[in-house]
Amino acid sequence: MGIDHKNLNSRYLELFTSALLVLTVLFPLSSEAKVEGDTITLGAAVSLTGKYATNGKHTKNGYDLGVKIVNERGGIKVAGKTYKFAIKYYDDESTPARGAQLAERLIKQDNIKFLLGPYGSGLTKAMAPITEKYKVPMVEANGASLSLFNNGYRYLFAILSTTEQYLQSAISLVATVSKNPEKVRIAGAFENDPFSQDIRNGVFDDAKRLGMKTVIDDKLPPDLNDMSATLTKVKALKPDLLVISGHAKGATLAIRQVSDMKVNVPMLALTHCDSADIIGKFGKAAEYVLCASQWDRSLAYKDAFFGSAENFAQGFEKSYGYAPPYQAAESAAALLVYKDAFERAATFDPSKVRDAIATTDMQTFYGNIKFDSSGKNIAKPMVLYQVQDGQYKVVAPTEWAASKLRWPTPPWHKR
Amino acid sequence: MWDNVSILIDAPIFLVDLLVNGILIGAIFVLAAYGMALVWGVMNIINVAQGEYVMMGGFVTLLVVKAGLHPLLGIPIAAGVLFITGWVLYRIILYRVVDRDIFISLLATFGISILLAQLFNQLFGADVQTIDAGLGTWYFMDGVVTVAVTKVIAFSLALGLGLGLWFFLKRSRIGQAIRATAQNARAARILGIDTHRVYAITYGLNAALCGAAGSLVVMAWAIHPYMGLPYTIRSFMVVIVAGLGNLPGVVLAGLGLGASENLAGFILGTEFQIAFVFILMIVVLIWRNRSLKRQRRYLK
Fold this sequence. Notes:
Chain A has 415 residues and is an alpha/beta fold. Helix content of chain A is 41%, strand content 20%. Chain A folds into 2 domains: 34-161 and 298-370, 3-Layer(aba) Sandwich (Rossmann fold), CATH 3.40.50; 165-293 and 383-414, Rossmann fold. Chain A has a 7-stranded mixed β-sheet, with helices on both faces. In chain A, strands 1-2-4-3 form a 4-stranded mixed β-sheet. In chain A, strands 5-6-7 form a 3-stranded parallel β-sheet. In chain A, a hairpin with a 3-residue loop joins β13 (302-303) and β14. The radius of gyration of chain A is 24 Å and the shape is globular. Chain B contains 12 helices and 2 strands, in the order αααααββααααααα. Chain B has helices at 2-10, 13-43, 50-66, 74-92, 102-124, 149-171, 173-183, 185-190, 195-220, 228-242, 247-268, 273-299; strands at residues 137-140, 145-148. In chain B, strands 1-2 form a two-stranded antiparallel sheet. In chain B, β1 (137-140) and β2 form a beta hairpin.
């Protein structure tokens, strides 16, 4: 077999050009941060298609409103000059691998040195090693998993409360109302996935610290269809608090079956009530249920840009035509963190901006923000709603709450 | 685990609650398993899309309720819509694979299941849906044993439809044609039975039974586009345990599966519920194999 020289030559040419391409991608000519004229460009890969598309949209709307408000109300003043925000978006298609690729692309190809987070813990987990590798700060607002914060990442900052805190306020609430925490008996049923198990650990750690007794600790299978085994146990053991977490499906099944089986429990706390739309689906059967949330428009937090939480909610409604879910609120607040950090750092050097973010200590309409050494926000508590007369009312934490807890839940034959 | 057993020993009434609820869950599996047994026995197809038909039945009922009709009307409407769906799917896809190797039909029905799940995700979104039928709950023994009326309906429907199916197969002309085709498709064709029509009706009937089951699932539990697989697996297990062409066996196996699953969830904890069911299935298969061997030896 002879060698086809012509073909071989063109192969070499191909190899050479592609090597050149790779080199230009890896070593771009300028290594300055993406600040051109008076615009600071932030980068974000957000799920605009795929299974997180709905929440991805909330995230993007939140970011966009944050940019708009900061720009309109004076912009960012860095070393005596006023700048404006802009965001370069990519669609991560709800896939972690794509998210990681896009983070690399934002940093290396688009030369962006400050990132905003994607939607969800899974995507954040995929992107964090990339931002860490290139020492580019990422302020994220939608990755709550505690596992993001025990890898020693220095450039990752989360402004939302982490998973283990989701239902801890239910424990402190039951401790407050029952007067004698040592006599309180807790029942929990948590889906067997990392997110819900994080929540479980938080709940049971707190219960143990307060001397409460755990009487049920069930792990719900991910393809869960029925909860009656757990609920029969609840009927038998009569706990003071039942905590259930299993995404929207868990919340839906919990209320469906607690009301069908007439399970009487003085306090029932869930996650994902709003995404399961329990009020719309169940009406009266959802009354008295407690739900974990990151934020609510009735909270008393304030800042100089959005005003109060309620002001933010109204502004959001005007721009996008729907009430802001907490995913949008926390995303908008991420812009305030960047603004504050740029102004204190007075430079666009990523590592100096990173240090400024690390020392953030501020109040926003979304809540107080202060990061611990692992980068998670430790200043904002989770909020606990209760369904009261067909509406979500904030009942905890008590210092920011607008409504009073209705407790204990009356038995079914009296409702 | 022993704590949980001691609850049942101290207060056996909870055992009643567990078993009653478990049996009523089993009724749903029975409905889906009838269809699977039928399709498997008559067409030699293991229908992997079984759970997706259950899901579709749920969404049809959801639409029925949105149109302002009573949720119970959803049961016959879902069954009707699903019969047509099954019939059409047979005419478009399954008639091409019905006489082929079982592996081909497995692939075909697997494809249908993926397609349906994605289609319903596009149409209705991935959200979890449920319907409040407003039928209430029966209490017994001071409210310790509670039975949702929807589940009672599911149970009676499972038994009633089983009986109806049995009569239909025994007495009606089509039923006789279905049985003839199941015994020997070629001979049935020679004797003038349009086997493709028989297959289409069988497959439509299967989908209709699943649709009725799905209609009950959306009232008693919750549905979403990706819920299919557990129902497919359960009906597969019920059919394997009961044996093909054994309708009373399907009823017993389905109800038993529901009850033992619930009991295992209570005693061992919900995380071991499914593992327990699979172990149970292996035990049943080993036991059946032994008893069959004994029969075979006897025949020699």
